[in-house]
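User: I'm new to structure prediction. If I give you an amino acid sequence, what do you actually give back? Let's try with this one:
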Amino acid sequence: MKTNQKEVVFIRHGKPLSAHNDKVNAADYAKWVKDYDRSELDPASLPEEEASLEDSYVIVSPLLRAQLSAKQYGAVTINETCHNLKEMDIPFYNIPLKLKAWHWVLLSRTLWFAGFKGDFESFAHAKKRTVNLAQHIQTLSETHNRIVLFGHGMTNYFTRKQLIKNGWHLKNKSGDFWGVTTLTKS
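Assistant: Good question. You get back a string of structure tokens that encode the predicted 3D arrangement of the chain. For your 186 residues, that looks like this:
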């Protein structure tokens, strides 16, 4: 990598142990969301590819699954734990349905994108966090050539979109558990 080339690497956390896809009602789905946010990693979930952490400024989400992922990945030094990197809240609505957990996520996110509110972070606020995170990354890139972030799917996605708007170039992307997405800027 050229010394004037900047690189941002997003690493999505490993699969949480609680990420089952059972059929649940609204109350059980709300519990599923809380369990997901507190979950340890599935011991069978391992990175398929590994990005180097050498000579990187490492940022980690405050959520347990990201903290554990950074540790499992081999991050010896964490330079920063960043609240703006935490996952966009997974919304839940009291709808009289019984769906598989991931279908609830899809339905709830769709309602959330459409502006339905609840006892969780609004989509507008979550997007603003990703804009702030992108600005923070941009500022850090003035003094650090390589930044590695251990975060979450939706937050990584919207932060990546903002960085691309700001002139960064997508090199590769993966939103899977342990997925690595890389952006560069000269």
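You can read the tokens as a compact description of the fold. Here is one thing that stands out. The helical segments are 26-38, 64-73, 101-113, 123-140, 153-165.
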